[in-house]
Amino acid sequence: MAAECLLRVENIGFAIRGHSILHEVSVQVAASEIVALIGPNGAGKSTLVRVALGLLAPDCGRVWRKPGLRIGYMPQRLSVDDTLPLTVQRFITLGSPASREQVQAVLAEVGADQVLNTPVQRISGGEMQRVLLARALLRKPDLLVLDEPIQGVDLNGQYDLYDLISGLRQRRGCGILMVSHELHLVMAATDQVLCLNRHVCCSGHPDHVARDPAYLALFGLDGARRLAVYHHHHNHRHDLHGAVVAGEVDT
Asked: Which sign, positive or negative, has the C-alpha torsion 196, 21, 53, 10?
């Protein structure tokens, strides 16, 4: 039986001052499905996400969301003023009231419970991405929307974050719509890839997209080699700063 559809975007068009940003773009996400939006900078990926979330009104086309759909959104970046005294716990509960125990639990799920009482300004880039993910998860979402989730994270942290995202899908059964321009980190667990450059160049399973002439024309042979659908197998674990954690191994 097909998984329940959570989000459907159909033939979206969006322009700014007559300049086309999106043209006849369609995408859909089902429960327990990971859909990745890839493409170069300026391709319209973040704009498509904002249209899907209802933050921007399209010029044409249709956006359908499952009635009562709960969405957890992780923005591409978020800056907190250095003069604002804000702990991680307080930051996570802004706009989403929750008990200390609930915050601890969601931080533990993303591997960042040790920063609960740390000022937001003192955590690393990798820690901040996990905190933003925890904040999105606090809503118990049916659909997770992740805009460049590895922004500002080192290479080891990028691998671990993608493993974490895949695990969240398996444990929670939520759909995931994820934006990336790091083609070589598109996960093996990704079910569908949509290659965007203001219009849909190609879409489908990552292996299919990697061989599509439209993808090759957009990114070239080097880009095709970089897609090389991400497989990452550790015999160890890293902490949030990338250091190997003694005595902990993956099985």
From this structure: negative
